[in-house]
Amino acid sequence: MEKILKNSWALFTGMGLIMLAHGFQVSLLGVRAVHESFSIAATGFMLTGYFVGYFIGARTVPILVSRVGHIRVFAAFASIASIVVLVHSIVINPFTWFVLRVFSGFSMVCLYTIAESWLNDRASNKNRGSVLSIYMIVLFSSMAIGMFFLNFSRPENFQPFILVSLFMSLSLVPILLTKKKAPKFKKIIGMKIKELYEASPFGMVSAILCGVCHSAMFALIAVYAAAMNFSIFEISFVTFLVAISGAISQWPIGKLSDIYDRRTVTVYSTFAAAFFALCAIFSVGTMHLPDGLASSKFWFYVFTGLYAFFSLPMFALIFAHTNDFVAKEKFVSAGAGLQFAFGMGAMSGPFMCSLFMDFVGENGYFIFLIIFHILIGVYGLYRMRVRDVVENPDSQFTPLPTTITPIGLELNPAAEPIEEPSKSDSNNVNDAKEVTNTLG
């Protein structure tokens, strides 16, 4: 563990600063949109841009890295992400912010991919699980802390955007000054969507539905809280609670899935998430009223935290279940296919949820999440009737952040290392070597 931290401290520091900025920005934009009187539909449309950019970037970043190298791509897109944040404070309208969020999503997936390929290069078969655990702790804790920065300045001012940009720019310093060599980019050959569906229909369909749920939850939780008249501290607390609950729940729910049928655990988890989302609606009461008239928010915090506890491990459950039906050498490519499916759902989640909230009211946020969690559960019950469980000794649950890229899926300790690129591909990493030699 000590050796891992010593060899990768610059990367973890850089990613910590990036996630600090990212967590802050997600909450800031949602609250600012409410202050600017954006309609809920316009806000959902704007926030969807991040997932559109993320989806496009996930398919494009390997080409960029192979052409110019890890360090140049990291520096370029950290800079772009920093600039984009500042433009949010200059031009304020939903369509412009949608375009800016596309650039943010594209930039973030580039940064994730580079960080995760770097970690893969540092990891061995003996410590992959430890490396992934540290990476998850850095991501979730930094993002959760970043959400509390909402309290340092009013969201309607320009100062919070400068602070987000500052953290994003600072992330460049440890990465660009490290003497460690950049890794070789490993080429991942994905599974065809048809092949993945045939291997695990439940994995494929539930990944899409899970993408809808998780993107809507993270994108609109601050919007919902602001619409319910939460204070800035209360908004930052509820977003912090969601991130931390999801991180804590990975291990106990994952342990259960290694003991029992993963579909059973997934079905129970998704129905539990739907139940606690319903409880959150009933707990609202009069808490949206002004001070002195508002009811306590205690039970809302409890039920929202429990919702996140059962909902956020679901992508990792789906990933592990799919691996039960594929060969070990296809774990990474199957994961890449699931990410593609997750991304398709994530692109539509915030916008569909915002339209539902416009039609039903603020509590349409939780009703939307309930509907999609129930769909996952019902489809899981159906698949359990038509297909028996398969015991795959090579498959195990691995805690995964929902932002993990196909490159990061290699950190799964149960997956076989990807083969090195062929000789014909070796010329693609020459630029990366030249840059690191110059920096070293």
Mean pLDDT: 81
Which regions contain 5 or more consecutive residues with pLDDT less than 50?
A: 418-440
What CATH first level would be assigned? Mainly Alpha
Q: The biggest beta sheet, please?
A: none
The CATH level-2 architecture is identified as: Up-down Bundle
Q: What class do helices, strands and sheet pairing give?
A: mainly alpha
The N- and C-terminal alpha carbons lie at a distance of: 25 Å
> Rg, please?
21 Å
Shape: globular
In CATH terms, what is the fold-level topology?
Growth Hormone, Chain: A
Tell me the CATH superfamily: MFS general substrate transporter like domains
As a percent range, the share of helical residues equals: over 70%
Q: What proportion of the residues form beta strands (DSSP E)?
A: under 5%
H/E topology pattern: HHHHHHHHHHHHHHHH
Compute the number of strand runs.
0
**Overall tally of structural domains:** 1
The number of distinct helices, counting runs of at least 4 residues, comes to 16
Structure commentary:
Residues 418-440 have low confidence and may be disordered. By secondary structure, this protein is an all-alpha fold. The chain is built from 16 helices and no strands. Helix 10 (232-259) packs antiparallel against helix 11 and helix 13 runs antiparallel to helix 14 (331-360). The chain is globular. The protein has a single domain, classed as MFS general substrate transporter like domains (Growth Hormone, Chain: A, Up-down Bundle), CATH 1.20.1250.
